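Project outcomes to date are best conveyed with an example. Our students and postdoctoral researchers have been running inverse folding experiments weekly, and each run begins with a structure described purely in C-alpha cells. The record below, which covers 261 residues, was selected by the lab manager from last quarter's runs and is presented without edits.
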C-alpha cells in the first residue's frame, strides 16, 4: 500500500519526522568535530541577539503591562487587587516571558534563517560547499543552532525584567499599588527555580526554532517560489513545537521542581 496515495498527511508527517531526526543526530555528532565555527557563531549571535533589542523591549513592556492590567481588572471585582504582583511575576517568569519571546523570535529569526538557507540552496551555494569538501552542517546549521540557544535565554531574561518593570508601572498608575509593595511581593513570591525553569524552556524552544529553520531551508524545493513557502512553514512548525513542548515541560516542572501550595 502506498502511504503517499492513501494517507498523504501521515506520509508527510513521517517523512518530516525522519528527516528532522536525521538532521538532529548529524548536527549533534558534528558539533564535536573540529574545526569549531567561532566566527560564524559570533556573526549569528550579533544578528539574533543584538539586532533584536527593539523587539525585546516592546515585547517585555507589552507583556508586563497587559498582564498587570488584566489581572488587576479581573481581581478588582473580588477585592483581590493586592494579589496582582504575585500573579503577574509568576506568570511572566514561568510562561509569558519565555513563550512570547520564543514565538516572536521564531517569526523573526526562524523565518530569516529559513529564507537565507533556502536562497543558498536555490543558488546552489550548498552544493558548492559540498563540492569543496566542506560540511554544510558545520558551516550553516551548527552556528545557527548554538547562537539561538545562547541568545534566546539571555533575551528572555531581559524580557522578564522589562516585563516586571512594565507590570510595576501599570500597577502604580492604574491600580494604585506602590512600587515598594510590588517589589516586596515579587521578592516574597518568586524563587530562583521560577527564573531558571523559564530559561530552561527557552533552550528547548531555541533548539526547535533553529533546527526547524535549518531543516526546512536545506530541504526547500520549488525555486524562488519555494523560499516563500518554506518561510511560512518554518513559522507555523516552530510555533507548534513551542506550544507542545511548553506543555510537557510545564507538566514536568510541576511534578519535580515547582513547590506544592
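After processing, the design step wrote out the following sequence:
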Amino acid at each position: 500500500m502506498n502511504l503517499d496515495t492513501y494517507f498523504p498527511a501521515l506520509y508527510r508527517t513521517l517523512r518530516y519526522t525522519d528527516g528532522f531526526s536525521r538532521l538532529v543526530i548529524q548536527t549533534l555528532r558534528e558539533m564535536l568535530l573540529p574545526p569549531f565555527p567561532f566566527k560564524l557563531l559570533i556573526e549569528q549571535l550579533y544578528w539574533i541577539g543584538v539586532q533584536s533589542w527593539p523587539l525585546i523591549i516592546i515585547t517585555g513592556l507589552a507583556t508586563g503591562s497587559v498582564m498587570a492590567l488584566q489581572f488587576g481588572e479581573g481581581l478588582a471585582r473580588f477585592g483581590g487587587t493586592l494579589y496582582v504582583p504575585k500573579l503577574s511575576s509568576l506568570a511572566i517568569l514561568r510562561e509569558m516571558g519565555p513563550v512570547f519571546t520564543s514565538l516572536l523570535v521564531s517569526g523573526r529569526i526562524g523565518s530569516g534563517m529559513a529564507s537565507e538557507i533556502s536562497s543558498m540552496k536555490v543558488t546552489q551555494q550548498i552544493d558548492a560547499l559540498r563540492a569543496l569538501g566542506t560540511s554544510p552542517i558545520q558551516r550553516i546549521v551548527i552556528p545557527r543552532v548554538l547562537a539561538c540557544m545562547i541568545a534566546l535565554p539571555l533575551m528572555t531574561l531581559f524580557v522578564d525584567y522589562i516585563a516586571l518593570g512594565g507590570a510595576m508601572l501599570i500597577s502604580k498608575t492604574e491600580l494604585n499599588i506602590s512600587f515598594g509593595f510590588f517589589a516586596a511581593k515579587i521578592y516574597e513570591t518568586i524563587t530562583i527555580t521560577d527564573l531558571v525553569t523559564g530559561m530552561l524552556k527557552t533552550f528547548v524552544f531555541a533548539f526547535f526554532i533553529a533546527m526547524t529553520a535549518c531543516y526546512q531551508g536545506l530541504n526547500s524545493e520549488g525555486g524562488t517560489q519555494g523560499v516563500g513557502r518554506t518561510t511560512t512553514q518554518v513559522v507555523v512548525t516552530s510555533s507548534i513545537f513551542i506550544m507542545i513542548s511548553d506543555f510537557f515541560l510545564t507538566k514536568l516542572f510541576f511534578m519535580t521542581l515547582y513547590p506544592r501550595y
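The CA atoms of residues 220 and 229 lie 8 Å apart. DSSP finds ten helices and no strands in the chain. The training component of this project remains on track.
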